[in-house]
Each structure stands twice: as structure tokens, then as C-alpha cells.
Amino acid sequence: MAHIELTWIPDQTFLGVDSTNHSIVLSPGGGVGVKPSETLLIALASCSAVDLVEILKKQRTTLHRLIITVDGEQDADPPWRYRRIALCYRVVATGATLEKVQRAVDLALNRYCSVRSSLHPEIDVTFAVELNQPDQE
User: Which of 26, 38, 44, 119 could be bridged to 33 by S-S, CB 3.0 to 4.6 A?
Assistant: First the structure.
């Protein structure tokens, strides 16, 4: 079972600590920490990345770099629900084709990612993949 602790620090700043004692500072926009709503985007990217790295390894792909950018479109009014989330996986690897990496991303994001699975089904989640060889960086 997942367990976190969130501690209020004066003003609008909070310290979140996970079950393995790792921490993150959170605050509203313009504060000193990560915006709470954007932690969802970080969680989605990192959750899919963990599985993607493992899938590529099993495909005998040598991963040199992985950068994931995420754009989230929220409603203009409270509670500012996400409507669309677009992920872009920039992969630098050898031993892979674009099709293999796209399939790996699809599996990682849409089959194995618990964060993606926990999102409301009405949220439009899309992804794109850019694949380069190490000498094309």
C-alpha cells in the first residue's frame, strides 16, 4: 500500500515525503516548489519511463538518452481539471526502429503505467516519439 506524508510549511508551501523517505517541495504557481497539479504530469511521465526503459532493455535496445516532455491542458475554471495531456518521448538509442520504440511507449504508457490507468477515461492522453541515433544528437 502506498503511503505519503504531507507537511505544511508556512505560507503555501508543503513538503511531501513518500514511503521510501524521498521528498518533494510543493507550492502554488510562483512559489518555491512544484505545482501540485503538475506533479500529476511528472508522475505520468516517470511512471511510463520506468517501464519504457525496461521494455527497451528487453528488446536489446541500447538507450543513451530519454527525455519526456509533457503538456497538459486544463479547464479555465475550478477545479481546473486536465482535459488533454500530450507526451513527447525523445529517445536516443541504438538497435531500435521507430516502430519498436512507439510500440514500447504504447505498452509502457497504456498497459503498464498505474498513473495512466488511474486517470479519468475522458482525459485525452496522446504521445509522440522522436528517435535518434547517438551520432544524430
Answer: 26
∠ Cα 31 33 35 (to 5°):
85
Q: Would you state the cell numbers that stand for residue 102, as one nine-digit string?
A: 512507439
Q: Nearest Cα to 36, choosing from 1, 69, 82?
A: 82
**Strand, helix or coil at 12?**
coil
Beta carbons of 2 and 22 less than 8 angstroms apart? no
Taking CA atoms, 104 is separated from 47, 74, 107, 128, in Å, by 13, 27, 5, 12
From residue 98, alpha-carbon distances to 75, 101, 114 in Å are 33, 5, 25
Residues in the chain: 137
Rounded distance between C-alpha atoms, residue 92 and residue 53, angstroms: 12
The C-alpha cell that represents 60 in the structure block? 536489446
Show pLDDT as tens, one digit a residue, over the chain (137 residues): 899 999 999 899 999 999 999 999 999 988 899 999 999 999 999 999 999 999 999 999 999 999 999 999 999 999 999 999 999 999 999 999 999 999 999 999 999 999 999 999 999 999 999 999 898 66
